[in-house]
């Protein structure tokens, strides 16, 4: 009789460890192979189909007071803007945030799943999970689905016992620790503004303004980014949403319309 | 009653799992083991059956480390212990890999206890015939802890505990004489508890001390002999003090 011991197993498949009583090997997740003549080509096509879809701009950076996380809110399907009000900053738990880039469903689902795992860790170990641990859990899950078409480019930002933490995790299975990240089609533009204006010892207001400006500039030049620039701050007491400004309005705030000198003026002439 | 003790998965009418209870009997026949928690260290002591002359005593260590900051001693079937220790060591590393953090003592104790419990609820297997004493330091708070698991899969934290042969006498001694100690005093307390049931000498006991800075340190035979001598001397002095009449007060 095979017992359901999934509750006692650690999240990552530990290869080679005899985790079953009777000799059973932990099976890698798999799906039915489609019926094609050229399976490898089909796989490549499937991956290409989701690859360019990271039409978004998200960014996060660590500074003296904590972590600043910002994102736009546009969802595009090719040239069609399907939504201007997507929530791209996902609240995993009161002290950890995740950003969404790539497949919206993939990001949302796996972030919620990560939230479950974090809570179970808390209950089992009577202490909060670290940002390192949470990002590792997510990275391990994404790695085990590697090659199956998940499209996730996310940043896990949070505050734990060791202070502020920021990790970049993607669906290739990569996981990077860093101080500044930007993900999405608008990221080059955001990086330009972010790298230029970044200082470690900024105040919360200065950092929020930098994040907002970087998102705005990305939405200005990148067609796949737009909508509302949301800015969140993660501090020792958890995250807090600081602002959500429409980028159109931000444009006129940064570049207000100046009265220009009139060269020629139209004058009303009495009708002939 | 005999009908209910063949298979582990059968309860007796009065709610016993006989195989688990027989496993506890196996533990009671195993060598004595004691653990004492101090304010800045934890000490494990195990009775060593006199080594055969030709045996290399280092290969028969009874106190093992599970990770840099966690160690284990057990009483019962030593072959079962090896299997359990290997699984625990793998889990310690697996935990480091998945959450990039060392295990807490409570976590690994829970894991070992969970493993022991798994084997009490499955067909075709028997329970592990051993109780373990697990000691270590919490990697964050630096607090020392001592835990105990048994064949039924239960576990709990202790200030001081003993298991194996004559564990009742050792536990009584500890209950009478336990107080918060640190450093060498904790080692002495553990050895005194062991000496209640073991013939004295460095040859018959194995002692290891776990500190936050230095991890697990096995005490040399000579060290143990020295401490035993100290304890004997203290005992003799206490006897003399009891027998001698009270000194006349100075006026």
From TrEMBL, chain A:
Location (main, coarse): cytoplasm
Keyword terms, alphabetized: Cytoplasm, Hydrolase, Nucleus, Protease, Proteasome, Threonine protease, Zymogen
Domain of life: Eukaryota
Reactions accelerated catalytically: Cleavage of peptide bonds with very broad specificity
Subcellular location: Cytoplasm; Nucleus
PANTHER family recorded: METALLOPROTEASE TLDD, PROTEASOME SUBUNIT BETA
Function as written in the Swiss-Prot or TrEMBL entry: The proteasome is a multicatalytic proteinase complex which is characterized by its ability to cleave peptides with Arg, Phe, Tyr, Leu, and Glu adjacent to the leaving group at neutral or slightly basic pH. The proteasome has an ATP-dependent proteolytic activity.
Record text on subunit structure and interactions: Component of the 20S core complex of the 26S proteasome. The 26S proteasome is composed of a core protease (CP), known as the 20S proteasome, capped at one or both ends by the 19S regulatory particle (RP/PA700). The 20S proteasome core is composed of 28 subunits that are arranged in four stacked rings, resulting in a barrel-shaped structure. The two end rings are each formed by seven alpha subunits, and the two central rings are each formed by seven beta subunits. The catalytic chamber with the active sites is on the inside of the barrel.
Protein name: Proteasome subunit beta
Organism: Hibiscus sabdariffa
Lineage: Eukaryota, Viridiplantae, Streptophyta, Embryophyta, Tracheophyta
Automatic annotation (TrEMBL), chain B:
Location(s), subcellular: Cytoplasm; Nucleus
Residue span(s) of domain Proteasome alpha-type subunits: 4-26
Tagged with keyword Nucleus: yes
Keywords on record: Cytoplasm, Nucleus, Proteasome
Classification via SUPFAM superfamilies: N-terminal nucleophile aminohydrolases (Ntn hydrolases)
Protein family membership: Belongs to the peptidase T1A family.
NCBIfam families xrefs: PRK03996.1
Quaternary assembly: The 20S proteasome core is composed of 28 subunits that are arranged in four stacked rings, resulting in a barrel-shaped structure. The two end rings are each formed by seven alpha subunits, and the two central rings are each formed by seven beta subunits.
Record function comment: The proteasome is a multicatalytic proteinase complex which is characterized by its ability to cleave peptides with Arg, Phe, Tyr, Leu, and Glu adjacent to the leaving group at neutral or slightly basic pH.
Protein name, as recorded: Proteasome subunit alpha type
Organism from which the protein derives: Hibiscus sabdariffa (roselle)
Lineage per the UniProt record: Eukaryota, Viridiplantae, Streptophyta, Embryophyta, Tracheophyta
């Amino acid at each position: 009789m095979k017992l359901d011991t999934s509750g006692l197993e650690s999240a990552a498949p530990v290869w080679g460890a005899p985790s079953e009583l009777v000799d059973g090997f932990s099976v890698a997740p798999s799906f039915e192979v489609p019926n094609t003549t050229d399976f490898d080509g089909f796989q490549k096509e499937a991956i290409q189909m989701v690859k360019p879809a990271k039409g978004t701009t998200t960014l996060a950076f660590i500074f003296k007071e904590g972590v600043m996380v910002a994102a736009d809110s546009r969802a595009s399907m090719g040239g069609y803007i399907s939504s201007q009000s997507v929530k791209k900053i996902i609240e995993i738990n009161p002290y950890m945030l995740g950003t969404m880039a790539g497949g919206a469903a993939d990001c949302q689902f796996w972030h919620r799943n990560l939230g479950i795992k974090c809570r179970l860790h808390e209950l089992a170990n009577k202490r909060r999970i670290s940002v390192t641990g949470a990002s590792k859990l997510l990275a391990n899950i994404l790695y085990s689905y590697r090659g199956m078409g998940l499209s996730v480019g996310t940043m896990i930002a949070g505050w734990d016992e060791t202070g502020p933490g920021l990790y970049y995790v993607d669906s290739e299975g990569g996981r990077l620790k860093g101080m500044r990240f930007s993900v999405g089609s608008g990221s080059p533009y955001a990086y330009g503004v972010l790298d230029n204006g970044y200082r470690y010892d900024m105040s919360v207001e200065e950092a929020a303004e930098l994040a907002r400006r970087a998102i705005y500039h990305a939405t200005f030049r990148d067609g796949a980014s737009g909508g509302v620039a949301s800015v969140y701050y993660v501090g020792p007491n958890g995250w807090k949403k600081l602002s959500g400004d429409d980028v159109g309005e931000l444009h006129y705030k940064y570049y207000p319309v100046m009265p220009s000198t009139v060269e020629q003026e139209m004058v009303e002439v009495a009708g002939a | 009653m005999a009908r209910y003790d063949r298979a582990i998965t059968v309860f007796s009418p009065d709610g016993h799992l006989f195989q688990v209870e027989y496993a506890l009997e196996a533990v009671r026949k195993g060598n004595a083991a004691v653990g004492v928690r101090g304010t800045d260290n934890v000490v494990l002591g195990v009775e060593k059956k006199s080594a055969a002359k030709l045996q290399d005593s280092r290969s028969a260590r009874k106190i093992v480390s599970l990770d840099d900051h966690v160690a284990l001693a057990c009483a019962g079937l030593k072959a079962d212990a090896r299997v359990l220790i290997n699984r625990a060591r793998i889990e310690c590393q697996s935990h480091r890999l998945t959450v990039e953090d060392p295990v807490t003592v409570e976590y690994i104790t829970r894991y070992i206890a969970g493993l022991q419990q798994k084997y009490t609820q499955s067909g075709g297997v028997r329970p592990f015939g051993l109780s373990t004493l697990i000691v270590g330091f919490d990697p964050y708070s630096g607090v020392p802890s001592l835990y105990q698991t048994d064949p039924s899969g239960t576990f709990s934290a202790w200030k001081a505990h003993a298991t194996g042969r004559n564990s009742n006498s050792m536990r009584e001694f500890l209950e009478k004489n336990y107080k918060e100690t640190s450093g060498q005093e904790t080692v002495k307390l553990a050895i005194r508890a062991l000496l209640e049931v073991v013939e004295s000498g460095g040859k018959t006991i194995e002692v290891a001390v776990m500190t936050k800075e230095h991890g697990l340190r096995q005490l040399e035979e000579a060290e143990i002999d020295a401490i035993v001598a100290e304890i004997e001397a203290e005992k003799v002095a206490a006897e003399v003090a009891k027998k001698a009449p009270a000194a006349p007060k100075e006026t």
